[in-house]
Specification:
- This protein is an alpha/beta fold and about 475 residues long.
- It has 13 helices and 15 strands.
- Among the domains are: about 100 residues, OB fold (Dihydrolipoamide Acetyltransferase, E2P) (Beta Barrel), CATH 2.40.50.140; about 150 residues, 3-Layer(aba) Sandwich (Rossmann fold), CATH 3.40.50.261; about 60 residues, no CATH class.
- Helix 5 runs parallel beside helix 9.
- Helix 5 links the parallel strand 6 and strand 7.
- The strands form four sheets. The chain has a five-stranded mixed beta barrel with strand order 1-2-3-5-4.
- About 45% of the residues lie in helices and about 20% in strands.
- It is flat and about 170 Å long.
Length: about 475
């Protein structure tokens, strides 16, 4: 019974035709081309590639599917609207298949612009937003150092970009390079690139040296491949970088938002290395040229000054001529000096004799007596004024003292009152401010005592008198 069931479950297959892979591919190609001989397809251009043969390869995509597209070299020269990454276009052509990879594709014969793609619209809005915040302002762009000691590079360690940069630096001016390895495409790329920029800025030079300039680089690719460099986190990190930053993302025609936030944009990673350092050979030649020009200028200056000095020396008179008249005047003054001294001495003798005649002892004594009497009068007046002033000030002091005693709190304490302060020295003006058990300081007129606050005393109950006259305690 089991054998019968087994034979029934296995139907015969001898009547099914057998095809080769090529035959199936050819049949599918004929079917697809027959069903879609001429179509118009709308989608967003992505993954654009220009082959060296002249053909153009790209993808047409929407939110659910992707269609491969090809523009042959002959057609590419004739179409007016060239496809660009991120543009939404309408492509006219025929649907066919590519047996080599079992794909279906459209052979494009005409391209029409249908409007900007959703991705390009999103990037344009983000660009406007960041520009409004001032992240792209030219005023915040920093000047690159002329010859940095250390260059920080943010890129993939396995791609050709780092090799191109290192090769170009070795050719121009070898410098120390710090590589921060990151992913340059994919979901993690944006976070890693931003972290690398901020990480280089956070270096304090104790462990690793802090770079003098940064290069953020990657090779070319589609707009989707370059999307990490359009993310806000990367753009903000580039704008916040205190180290001058060069953006070298993609090829010369590729533009990302980090290009606007960077201090300089390089069309290629190799061009970024050229921006970062000068050519050492050119610097050596320039230095030698400066040295030659400096030496020549110094020699020409010395020659010019020597000639000028010799010209001035020829027009100056000889020292004997310059000193002839002063010597003659000195001789004449020397001859007149003894006679002038005798006249001056005679004049002072006459003045001295007149002064001696006016100095008589009796006149001096009279003058001293008058001055002494005047001085005694001034001393008596000064003593009288001093005593009167002292008495006046003493009366004012006594009056002020009496007023002070009348308003002083110590006068109030003398009448039987006391000041109540808490343990922190704060004055207690109300019984409600005192807590039970609180330590208090009581200041009397003669001394201060401490006390502890107890429970408040209840008011005595009052009773009515039997005769209705008032109340009883």
């Amino acid at each position: 019974m089991s054998e019968t069931l087994f034979e029934t479950a296995a139907p015969p297959r001898a009547n099914l035709p057998e095809f080769s892979v090529s035959e199936i591919s050819a049949a599918l190609k004929q079917t697809v081309e027959g069903a879609f001989p001429f179509v118009r397809v709308r989608g967003e251009v992505s993954g654009l590639k220009h082959a060296s043969s002249g053909h153009i390869y790209f993808d047409l995509k929407d939110d659910k599917a992707v269609l491969n597209a090809i523009i042959w070299k002959q057609t590419a020269r004739l179409i007016r609207q060239k496809p660009e990454a991120g543009l939404e276009v309408v492509c006219t052509g025929r649907i066919t298949t590519y047996p080599g990879s079992s794909r279906y594709q459209i052979i494009v014969e005409q391209v029409e612009l249908a409007g900007a793609g959703a991705l390009m619209v999103m990037l344009e809005e983000r660009k406007k937003k960041l520009a409004a915040e001032g992240l792209f302002a030219a005023a915040r762009k920093r000047k690159l150092p002329f010859l940095p000691d250390v260059i920080g590079v943010v890129t993939s360690p396995t791609g050709a970009v780092i090799r191109d940069i290192m090769h170009r630096l070795d050719e121009r001016f070898p410098r120390r390079v710090l590589l921060w390895a990151v992913s340059v495409q994919g979901e993690r790329a944006a976070a890693e690139i931003a972290a690398a920029i901020r990480g280089f800025n956070a270096l304090d030079g104790t462990g690793l040296p802090r770079p003098d300039v940064l290069i953020v680089a990657r090779g070319g690719g589609s707009i989707e491949d370059l999307m990490p460099f359009n993310e806000e986190v990367v753009v903000r990190a580039a704008a916040e970088s205190e180290i001058p930053l060069i953006s070298a993302v993609g090829h010369e025609t590729d533009t990302t938002l980090i290009d606007f936030a960077a201090d300089r944009r390089a069309p290629t990673p190799t061009a970024a290395a050229e921006m970062a350092v000068p050519v050492r050979a050119d610097l050596v030649l320039q230095t030698l040229d400066f040295d030659r020009r400096l030496t020549g200028g110094f020699q020409r200056g010395m020659t010019h000054r020597r000639n000028a000095l010799q010209g001035l020396a020829r027009v100056l008179p000889r020292p004997e001529q310059l000193l002839a008249q002063p010597r003659q005047r000195a001789d004449h003054a020397g001859e007149r000096l003894p006679q002038a001294l005798r006249r001056n001495l005679q004049k002072h003798r006459i003045r001295f004799s007149k002064a001696d005649a006016s100095l008589k002892p009796k006149a001096l004594r009279d003058h001293l007596r008058r001055d002494a009497e005047h001085a005694r009068v001034l001393i008596r007046q000064l003593d009288q004024h001093y005593r009167a002033r002292l008495t006046e000030q003493a009366q004012r002091l006594a009056s002020v003292t009496r007023v002070l005693e009348t308003v002083s709190y110590r006068g109030v304490l003398e009448r039987g009152f006391a000041l109540v302060r808490g343990s922190d020295g704060v004055l207690k003006r109300r019984a409600a401010d005192i807590a039970r058990g609180e330590r208090l300081a009581l200041t009397f007129a003669d001394d201060t005592r401490s006390a502890v606050a107890g429970a408040p005393t209840p008011e005595p109950r009052r009773k009515r008198r039997p005769d209705g006259q008032g109340t009883l305690l």
